[in-house]
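re: that chain from earlier
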Amino acid sequence: MFDTLNQTLFALINAPETTSPTVIRFATLAAEGLLYLVALWMVLAWIRGGDALRRAFFNAGLAALLGLVANQTIRLFWANPRPFAQGIGHQFLDHAPDASFPSDHGTILFSIAFALLFSRAYKAGIAGLLIALATAWARVFLGVHWPLDMLGSVAVGIVAAMLVVWVFRGLVGGLFRLALSLYRRLLALLHLPVCLFPR
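^ sequence. v structure.
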């Protein structure tokens, strides 16, 4: 049943052979480039933000790392092949024929988005969720992931964010204070202000 639904949804989303190069370029930017944009966003949020925003993005970074570890563990038990590895659909993005479930790109971005939302950084969390959804769509559209891979990423992202923000709140808080202390010491050592780029 799940395989049939997965393949049906994939057929609806995956780009046809006649898709214009402009659309493919746009989708490729969403599939690969948005992740780097989010990484830059997180760095700038840490540099320019107050401690509350820094804590939210610190939570997001840890959730993304935890999500990636969970992905590798899942793949030990279920190495689901990608669509193009099974000769299904149209592939417009170069990718190794490794296991596809869950999507690493999706997991990173959904973990970040849900961690921001759970940390009450709502505007950042909604923006992160829109970016995650755009990336998820693009990677299915370009033929390197199944829709179920992205649903798996959503589930992993939610669980990773819950663990970081709520379950291990005390431990994560201690790690955040340590990271913030080391950051401030580094700035002092370099004779730089705490806020490098004031708003």
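The chain has one domain: 20-80+101-189.
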